[in-house]
Design brief:
The complex is a heterodimer of chains A (194) and B (163).
Chain A (H helix, E strand, L loop, with lengths): L1 H21 L14 E2 L5 E2 L9 E6 L5 H17 L4 E7 L6 H11 L5 E3 L4 H6 L3 E2 L1 E5 L5 E5 L14 H10 L14 E2 L5
Parallel strand pairs in A: 3-4, 4-5
Antiparallel strand pairs in A: 1-2, 3-7, 6-9, 7-8
Chain B lengths: L1 H15 L11 E3 L1 H9 L5 E7 L4 H17 L4 E7 L6 H11 L5 E4 L5 H6 L8 E5 L5 E6 L5 H10 L3
Classes of the chains: A alpha/beta (194), B alpha/beta (163).
């Protein structure tokens, strides 16, 4: 009996693993909640804390990926530009082989002006369907996914032609339709702890 | 844009002048149409395409495996092609890596660099590395996101098929 139960449990766990791997949001979906994720400044990221925000940018990123690093200055510039407009930028690292101590060091070195959180379980990345770093999800005022994909169209800042996230946020703030709702993200594969 | 072509031309001129490439082909800068031509030129062979970038650690770690397969099965009809999603401005860096790897097969650097245009142009859905395997008739038979466990097995399978 016990063995039978254990087998059923194992099958259920495998099924959950597969469904989690296939999970993820689509544009228009209600955004999965993010709760109690510790940040480099000793606080926590909670989506509820930003309930008054007109838009939230959830950015799955990391410390080590060269693409993610190439975008850090752009994230800082974005946060600086939009903080006073009611837009919240949140960065979450879920990579298994990284940790909060190294992230704290990185946050200090770069002077990150946005919350940089570490979620060891990777649950948020699974819930959102984040595949790479950086992978961005823009949520509108109703916490629905308005845009998902790349921050812009080129990791080389000198070659950027389309600022997808800024365009999406501008549209939300103006009460207009988001012009491009989904792009293929470019970056390093996310490595979630197994 | 001119800077990229100048970099490519400069490297080509240096190589024509006699630099040591260890038999490594100089990369060309192009798009999906160029890749299709490169694949078509190998008609009659099984073609392995390795999408990679110098900024992608798993790609760099996996690249020797592609070189190893290309060398091991070349005589049986395997042709490898690499497609780099590096910025064309990093041409010299890419070429240096390929020379170090002794990657003696054709190479393409996406003219779009490391951005969404490259992902769209080559229809890549996830992070690189990405591998595609075409049969001797030029038909795409297998593709993998991330390092495949069964790549060599599939190469042998397609090599065994008659054209």
């Amino acid at each position: 009996m016990v063995r039978k139960f254990a087998m059923l449990l194992a099958v259920a766990l495998v099924a959950m693993t597969f469904s989690a791997a296939d999970a993820g949001v689509k544009v228009g979906d209600q955004a999965p909640d993010i709760k109690g994720v510790p940040t480099t400044d000793g606080k926590q990221v909670n989506l509820d804390d930003a309930k008054d925000a007109k838009a939230i940018v959830v950015c799955f990123t990391c410390n080590e990926c060269p693409v993610a690093k190439a975008y850090e200055d752009r994230f800082i510039g974005f946060t600086k530009k939009y903080a006073d407009k009611g837009v919240k930028f949140i960065a979450i690292n879920v990579n298994a082989r990284e940790d909060l101590d190294a992230m704290k060091q990185r946050a200090e070195e770069k002077g990150l002006n946005y919350p940089y959180a570490y979620e060891a379980s990777g649950a948020s990345a699974v819930a959102y369907g984040a595949k790479v770093t950086p992978h961005i999800f823009v949520l509108d005022g109703d916490r629905k996914v308005a845009y998902m994909g790349a921050f812009d169209d080129n990791q080389n800042p000198d070659r950027v032609g389309k600022a997808y996230v800024a365009d999406a946020v501008d549209a939300i703030l103006a009460g207009e339709s988001v012009p491009v709702t989904q792009t293929r993200p470019v970056g390093c594969g996310i490595q979630i702890r197994k | 844009m001119a800077a990229y072509w100048r970099a490519a031309l400069l490297c080509l001129m240096v190589c024509v002048a006699g630099c040591e490439t260890g038999g490594t082909a100089t990369p060309v800068i192009g798009d999906a149409t160029d890749l299709n031509w490169m694949i078509a030129e190998q008609r009659g062979k099984v073609v392995l395409v390795d999408f990679w970038a110098t900024w992608c650690t798993p790609c760099v770690e996996g690249f020797p495996h592609t070189v190893g397969l290309a060398n091991k099965y070349r005589g049986q009809g395997l042709a490898a092609i690499s497609v780099s999603l590096d910025d064309p401005a990093d041409f010299v860096k890419v070429n240096r890596f390929l020379v170090t790897q002794k990657a003696n097969f054709p190479h393409l650097i996406s003219k779009y660099g490391g951005g969404t245009d490259s992902m769209d142009a080559f229809e890549l859905d996830a992070a690189v590395p990405h591998y595609r395997l075409y049969d001797r008739a030029g038909k795409l038979r297998y593709q993998w996101n991330g390092m495949p466990d069964d790549l060599e097995e599939k190469v042998e399978e397609l090599l065994a098929e008659q054209p």
